[in-house]
Amino acid sequence: MAYKELARNKAFDGHVVKYEHASTELSCNMKFNVFLPKESQHGAVPAIYFLSGLTCTEDNFIQKSGALAEAAKHGVALIAPDTSPRGAGIEGEDDSWDFGTGAGFYLDATDPKWAKHYRMYSYITRELPALVNKELPIDGTKVSIMGHSMGGHGALTIYLKNATNYKTVSAFSPIANPVNCPWGQKAFSNYLGVDDKEAWKEYDTVELLKKLDNVKVHALVDVGTSDNFLERELKIDTLKETVAAQGQQWTIRYQDGYDHSYFFISTFIADHIQHHAQYLKQ
Ligand SMILES: N[C@@H](CCC(=O)N[C@@H](CS)C(=O)NCC(=O)O)C(=O)O
């Protein structure tokens, strides 16, 4: 299967289209959703990738974030991939909600048990862009990336490692320092092995920021002060300190009383789309 259309719904004068394709990176079939604004009927448009969090599929963001209206306003496409390979059949992959299926952590696993299928980093940075740039009216020279929670971690790390490929980055409630939190330690010790801590740092926003020389990044990060995961898992204070120490000028906002849910995302999604549109139009 090269790729096939599974569903198409008109929205805000454009369309939300769901596709399925056989992924060579992940060795399984994968689904993703795309919002194509009406401008895409006349030529290639800029696009924002949105990486979702733990337990999500390709549907959560496109159905719950309220992003379509603002994307339509700016003539920008949205690309919403799944969060892990599906049905790989690896022992233990469905045992917990924060690891395995629905929790690919946007890395390329090196542990032999996971290495064949759990390659979300290569899928998001190479395979999926190659497919959408070839098959859809997407301008591959004008793309950016954002995400939520595990997907916020994915967006920030992918951006920091490939800054020339993306115009900008933003995140909601990102897992900012996974080497120092339970979710990250569980994922990295299994996918990357317990011993190779240097490999872990390659997928850690705070650690990547420390290595960033002379590159100024203008990222937007929002997190809710009533987010249940704020202290234990997200480590936004550490991110903020590192950003300051590195002389970066990120906008990091603590939003009073908001939690980790899509109600929070939908409240601030317009700000994020506007942030991206400003860079995508340059
Ligand atoms: N274990 C809880 C928490 C998982 C959770 O909060 N997931 C976030 C990302 S880390 C999410 O986006 N959930 C899906 C949704 O709210 O639609 C659950 O299964 O809902």
UniProtKB/TrEMBL annotation:
GO biological process: formaldehyde catabolic process
EC numbers for this chain: 3.1.2.12
Species in which this protein is naturally found: Absidia glauca
Intracellular or extracellular location(s): Cytoplasm
Active site location: S149 (charge relay system), D227 (charge relay system), H260 (charge relay system)
Record's function text: Serine hydrolase involved in the detoxification of formaldehyde.
Keywords: Cytoplasm, Hydrolase, Serine esterase
Principal location class: cytoplasm
Pfam families hit by this protein: Esterase
Catalytic activity: S-formylglutathione + H2O = formate + glutathione + H(+)
Name of the top EC class for this enzyme: hydrolase
Protein name from the UniProt record: S-formylglutathione hydrolase
GO cellular component, one term: cytosol
SUPFAM superfamilies: alpha/beta-Hydrolases
GO molecular function: carboxylic ester hydrolase activity; S-formylglutathione hydrolase activity
